[in-house]
Amino acid sequence: MNHELDFPAGIWEAFAKGRPPVRCSAGYLIYLQDTEATCFYFLKSGKVKSFIQSEDGMERVLNLYHAGSLFGEASFFDELPRVSSAVAVVPCEIVPIDRELVAQEFAKNPELALSMVKYLARTVRLLSGQVDQMAFRPARWRVANYLLTLAGRDGTVSCTQEDIAAAVSASRVTVSRVLGEFAQRGWVELGYRTIRLKNPKALLDLP
Question: Does domain 137-204 have CATH number 3.40.190.10?
Answer without folding.
Answer: no
